[in-house]
Amino acid sequence: MDKFIELGQDMVTLWVNYWPRYLVGIRSTLLLAISATIIGCLIGLVCGILNTIPYSPRDPAPKRILLKLIRAVVRIYVEVFRGTPMMLQAVFIFYGLPYFTDQKIMFRGTSGMWLAAIIIVSINTGAYMAESVRGGIISIDPGQTEGAKAIGMNHVQTMTSIILPQALRNIMPQIGNNFIINIKDTSVMFIIGFIEFFGQHRNIVGNNNMFFQSAAIEMIGYLCMTLIASLLLRWVERRMDGSDSYELVQADQLTMAAGTYSHPNRGTPFDEHSKEYQDRVSEGLKQRNGSTRGER
């Protein structure tokens, strides 16, 4: 128990002395995670749509070749950036571009560091989102696409008006998951010198050697950010779902005209136990009996 009390006192001391630097790190982490997630979702959306454009053997050869080439490029991009660590991707982008361009492309200063970090996290997120978008699109019932074609809608209209709105709701949990992952994975940007929440922790520890105490503050900070993000994303999902209470239509003129409606007290017109059916049978018997007597 004494150790926990001592740990708490050291954490309070660190926070009192360095809270502005911790808050700057939190701000940088959130800005990088939000911007990279948005850009990554756009990249994934484009890749997912390009990867699901349909074609058939009857289509012209240039169209089929172009779509196959696009799918191959998207597949290579997805497999490379999903199959390698983000830390190594950061090294290759930040140090590799200047190397292959003879220092013509370099990330200089604070703005260059921000640009490099956003590019790295966005491309990595886009690779994961590409497969999520593709899965969301193919999860929609093919009958909806066929119905859209039947009423004269082209592929672009079908995607924008029917498929994508439903696919977006289906992949919303994955978007939130990638955002939470980005909040944590921005910590690897220290490899290129980008200072965010974890980078501030490393600098503060260099001043006082209180590594574990500062790491405890970091853990609480990351946990708070991810919990708040989870709550906000669940709220967004509920807003997208709409209201839970729906009023069912009790009377439809077309259905009633077809004779298939159900009266709450009398049942359907074809129910042998309903009053309506019995009255109709009785009326028919009366008419038949009357006509028979007249003929006699």
UniProtKB/TrEMBL annotation:
GO BP annotations of the record are: amino acid transport
Listed GO CC annotations: ATP-binding cassette (ABC) transporter complex
Limits of the ABC transmembrane type-1 domain: 26-233
Pfam families in alphabetical order:
BPD_transp_1 (PF00528)
Instruction: Give the principal location in a single coarse category.
Output: membrane
- Basic and acidic residues bias (residue ranges): 269-286
Gene3D superfamilies, from UniProt?
A: MetI-like
Bilayer topology reads:
Multi-pass membrane protein
Q: Where in the cell is it found?
A: Cell membrane
The protein's UniProt keywords, in alphabetical order, are:
Amino-acid transport, Cell membrane, Membrane, Transmembrane, Transmembrane helix, Transport
PROSITE patterns documented for this protein: ABC_TM1
Q: Which GO terms describe its molecular function?
A: transmembrane transporter activity
Membrane-crossing residues?
Answer: 30-55, 76-100, 112-130, 179-198, 210-233
Top-level taxon of the source organism: Bacteria
Q: Where is this region: Disordered?
A: 262-296
Q: Which InterPro entries match?
A: AA_ABC_transptr_permease_3TM, ArtM/GltK/GlnP/TcyL/YhdX-like, MetI-like, MetI-like_sf
The family annotation for this protein states: Belongs to the binding-protein-dependent transport system permease family. HisMQ subfamily.
Q: What is this protein called?
A: Amino acid ABC transporter permease
Q: Which organism is it from?
A: Candidatus Intestinimonas merdavium
